[in-house]
User: Fold these one by one.
Assistant:
Number 1:
Amino acid sequence: MANENRFLVRKVAVLGSGVMGSQIAAHLANANVEVILFDLTSKEGHPNSIVQKSLAFLQKLEPTPFSVKSKVNYITAANYDNDINLLEQCDLIIEAISERMDWKKDLYSKVSSKIASHAIFATNTSGLSIQSLSEVLPSHLRKNFCGIHFFNPPRYMTLVEIIPQKETDSKTLDQLEAFLTTTLGKGVIRAKDTPNFIANRIGVFSMLATMYHTDKFHLGFDTVDALTGTSIGRAKSATYRTLDVVGIDTLAHVIKTMGDTLPNDPWHSIFKVPNWIQTLISKGAVGQKAGAGVYKKNGKEIHVLDLELQNYRLSKQEVDPSVEAILKIKDPSEKFKQLIKSDNPQAQFLWSIFRDLFHYCSVQLQDISENARDLDLAIRWGYGWSMGPFETWQAAGWKLITEAINNDIASGKSITNTPLPTWVTDQNRVAVHFAEGSYSPTKKINEERRKLPVYLRQHYPEKVLGEKHSYGETIFENDGVRLWNIDPDIAVLSFKSKMHAIGSDVLDGVIESVKVAEKNFKGLVLWQTESPFSAGANLAQVTQALQTNNFTILETMVKRFQEASMALKHSLIPTVAAVQGLALGGGCEFVMHCSKAVAALETYMGLVEVGVGLLPAGGGCKEFTLRASREAKGGNIFPFLQRYFENIAMAKVSRSAEDAKELGYLRASDTIIFNPNELLYVATAEAKGMYESGYRPPLKSRDIIVTGKGGIATFKAALVNMLAGGFISEHDFEIGKKVATILGGGEIEQGNMVTDEWLLELEYRFFMELLKTNKTQQRIEFMLKNGKPLRN
């Protein structure tokens, strides 16, 4: 009975192996879901060669859709003619063929008799009517039929919209939402069955309004991209680079769909494909996939289309200094006041695209979304904006913006004279997002979040402006960390530093927190209130000590780092690292020393110290040597040690949590989850489980078998070859020799046993030697100034 409402998914079918279908299949495989990927029967060669070619292409894609290469083996290639009976085994079927209503309906007629009665059938359309698509299905399948709109690329984009039609069972939606949220790690928004749903309706409108005002203010495409990217909290690719990435032909199709299906939209006049886009399509210059679009590469130079020249020119991305100064204003209200009153065309352009976006969202909200929160999250998750439209409006001052929009409507500056809805202009309205919920124009209330059981796993869901999170009760705190709890049995340790960098205050805080937690709790979880887990050591603090030539401080810091790592490893209660995003250098070492790690799929771990001319000295080298010794089980240690040496010497960073396991940063016993909002919940449960099973920490090692001089010599020989081939610098060679010596256990005979303390002392000694070299100090300084490594 406990599983009565759970959606148990053993096998999924994806219909269509194009760009979206194949990548959806890849992400399902990432989650250890068996997938059957269907397409048409090939007319030549193997019947499944269409799918096989898609899978081969997937394995070359960057960024990779697979968490590790081997996941492709979970996908079975199939075709509709020979393998259609396989659909009977599937619990979820996702259709992802081309955006043609007639093609989709023809396919539904072909497969519907093979779909099990319990299975959920969903279409990955980006904007077609779900109701119309459902009409071809037999009545018994309609209750389990809905829209499921993934965003590209499916592994990395958070948003999935699910869209019911009139007969969709609410239980179907709840089960699908739970599966998408926990198993695939998605942020789910329920959209209404309207053209382009929520994210694309607003996102494409925003792009059309931007195009309209680009022309109106006579701005270059490169200037618009300089104005509409990260400087206003949007994706780095901004507007026209995004257009090239998405595909100019694809956008033209979406614009045409909006024009055809939204004849009564007050902004219908701009729902048309600009002539310059039609010209590019006719020339085949449809964007990145064709090698040219709005932009094209000319050698190493980036060139941009100039409509006045009717040709490409060098891209300059020039922003007027006065507008740049406005965009740097921290206070949103003051920033918008300055944009509104400025006479500069670039400032007026920015205000115009924001004004039209706010105006459009307020007019359409009731028809396309349940509430303002769903619209804002859909845009953030689907388009990579840092704030949604309503959040931006609210942050800038509701009444200020409302008055400015009304003034522009009255003066004819707006694209349409459609008035703002009365709920917007209500004299008591100061916001749409509140602690208790977000405004729903349909229900005329501030609507709470959905209370599905799956969301009990999210102690701190991603919040919108106006929502508050209370991070428990403080137990201990210093300048670097805060120890707190919401569960009476488990303490949570969070870092307070920028990028959660590890400096002296963090090290002191970790050591003290372990002591406090041992006395008062059953477990300790390391979890940050926001990503990343940790970018590593606080280099600014290291630089300060170097500038005053105070090596005593640095010696103390290294020893303290080792003490903190060992405190986490040998704590009398289980310590669990809850990791997402970057876990680099010292952050990676902390994870390696905890009793267990719970890592979100998108975790990027690595011991990257060589990039700043150093080596891991917080126990990372020691831990790798210990693991190699244990993995060898008395046999030849060198093959096990070799991959760890390569990790450190090449500063390898994992491309996922699964990859971190393959590289050895995570252990086989560590847990990987897909939704980072569930990290704290799962890590807490793991800590409790370990405590209840009678957890005892590992004893300090006295029997680590090492390769000694023989292994070190082999590593050094490889380094000599790399130096001779120009693959590494002289300083890299020196660092590599020191890493080899630590991993080999020092200049002793092969087969000898050493202790943790022996290896930690080697780490400490060689770290301090490197720190005193000019080239290492140059690398540290360069990294702080430029954010990338110097290979001197």
Number 2:
Amino acid sequence: MSKKQLLLVGGASIVVAVLAHALFFYETAAGRFMVGLNDGLGQILPFKHFLYQQLKNGHWSYSIQFGLGAGTFSQLAYYFSTSMVYSFSCLLVYVGEMSGLIANVDLLFWGKAAVYINAARLALILFLATSVFHYMNMSLPYAFLGAVFYGVSVMYFTHGIYWEFFADAFLWLPLLVLGVEKLIREENPFWLIAAMSLSLINNFYFSYVHFIFLSVYALLRWLIRFPEDRLTINVQLRYYVAIAVLSFFISAVAFIPAVSGFLSNYRPPFTDKVPLFSVHDNLLYGSKFWLLPPLFVLFACIKQLYVDKTARLFIVIALLFCLFHYSPFVASVFNGFSAPQFRFEYIGTFAVGGVIARGMMHLQALTKPDLARGVVAMVMIYMLAFLLDDTLSLPFFSSQYAVGIAILAVVSGLAVLCLRQSRQRVALLCVLFIVCQLLFINVGASTFFSTTSTKQASERFMSSESYDSPQQGELIEQALKRKKHQLARIEWMVDFRNNTPLIQGFYGNSAYSSVLNGNILQFYYDHLQIDMGRESVSRYYGFGDRTNLHSLMNVQFKLVDKKEETAIPYGFTLFSENDRYALYENQWLLPFARATSNVFLEEDLEKYSPLVREHAMLEGIVLASGKATAKAVPETDVLERARINAVGGTYKNGTLTVTDKVGGIDIVFVNRAAEEIDDYVSFYLQNHSKTAPRFTLQVNDYKAWRKSRSSIYKTDANDLTIRVPSREIVSLRVPKGIYTLKDLSLQSETYQRLQYVYAREANKPIHVSFEGRTLRLSYDNKKGDTHLTVPIPYEKGWEVSVNGKKQQVEKANYAFLGTAIAEGKNEIVFSYLPPYFRTSLLLSGCGLLATATWIYVRWRSTS
């Protein structure tokens, strides 16, 4: 393109991007944001604000505030830590903040900024897609029209609202296609190296999606050859291997830590049957992911267009992805062979844009009979899709939106028939179709705002009791001022928003992210069987009101809502309160760092209950391997002095059948000992029905919500341990149904061990300081302790030195950091870098050097 054309396309891209977001600009001005209420306010905004503050303070790799502590560069790479759009946004915001143009960069700022970031990204997408279509021999007006149908699409706005980082994938796809075409047509590999490197750096998940697409695209380009193609298939293959290796090397500094973080995550394997084919929505009328424009359906029905190889290529890709859209198996493949997720249709949207651009370019050359037959076929397809969809009602026109789309399809066909005679009329058609697409997306956005919970994502909501109210902040501030040391934690979460600590600015014990530390999740699911109140993957919260764990993990305060029934753990006393909330303080808080000579082994504790494992952690340290120096003391199962009665049904041979609306079992004691404070009730529970909805499990006053077995977000952690205050009767209740209820045990906690350990360690000071990615500890070991542990999660990337000598980091207490220590004075330094960071940095340097050398050699050979 000439400079004039570049400016024209760039200006048009900005104008269209702004107009496409017109409704969202209006809503933002009214205090409502282009952000989803759930994941948007629960993950997207908190992560953006949190990472910005980290970057601004120079702490880019680790934070003790994310959950119980996490490597943010690796674990948040799925979201924003390696996103170039986000990084550039942060740079602009930082410059604005330093220059005084931006006064306060808080969560509200990121909510207001969402529409500007999405619009700017869309403008760049339109420019890139136009450039790629133009490179593939499409005239600029038609290339721009195709780009509009790609960018100004349902999926772009769905991604932009709910999962903003998904929308970045729209940027890299055109560049990848351009890279392949540059290679095949010009034997120029460097565009593809750049595109693949950028994609790999930006997001490892969508790099995988792009890898599948590029494999399909390359195969189709072998089958559909263009006259301008220069490379044979064999030569292409050699180039692809070299390009893949160099791209991997260049991106290694971001890609390897990100993939390492993903592989260190724990998620139960998806075991449900994945069907090959399933009709789950209507691509012509009502898909929330991908809505086919009538113009594409028309051109796909015109036989004459298939003669054009470029049109044929894009039609085949678009139709192939339409087929993929109805295949849960393919959706599973694109999601790493996990649960089916339909996140890849933007690829089909790009192909649809290519079909429309190429079809409009050939419009004048198409014969009237061919066009007429295409219009008739299109109308028949829309009628058939309408009649076969049970959710649409033809006699009563219950779906006004569907009727509008049907009318648009007919009008589009007639417009093409009537306005194709001259270039000026076709240009007018292009303008009309762009205007229609802008109207369509804004009307759709208006309907979306009025019919979904997104309208609640507002400035008002973000200062409410359901998100972050002043009354909550008042008590959080008091807790922060009273903290016994820098790293003490507060247990508090608003309405299942596990990232509340990031929102309200304190060290908590909860997190919500698709990528989490697998050691922590297994600590919750398996080793300690901690119930979080609400079953769901990708989350953890609290410690099941188990005081031993609160004390071990340095939870000094617990904030509760007085309007909700909330259990207060043993040893927590009222510290402060206001009209709505109460703040409790832990009287048995143990030191952050603890030294011991009592070593327990995980394998020795496998046969014991979670309570015994808690006691082992209190009395010493639990290691995965090594030599044990202490033995666990089993706790008495007090079920031996109780009887079990079925309530509202029957209980026999491990099967609980509830015939009443709610039923279960009662564990009845004749009397309880005065020192028995809490009961740890352990059991295996699973609903026999795979289709039953989620249900409430209640043990005495404690309630927990269990997922349906058909849910893709179930944890498959069915061995549960529930802590409740000791009573004469322990009741377990579930809704009507048939359940497996087995491995029942009940142990009582007197807290004598906790009190003893608290008294023993009160005069055993270990100085602790934490800054950025480094934890420093000073300990004068006068009592022959052999190991030290801290409640910071163990993960790849941690290193430790004792008195200047590097040594092995131990995984202690199932999921946390530990190390061996020496007698006398110990200066211990734990430091963190993203996994394999030094190696990956070296690889990136080698990749850049090799690519630069290749460019230089080619330049010398052609000059």
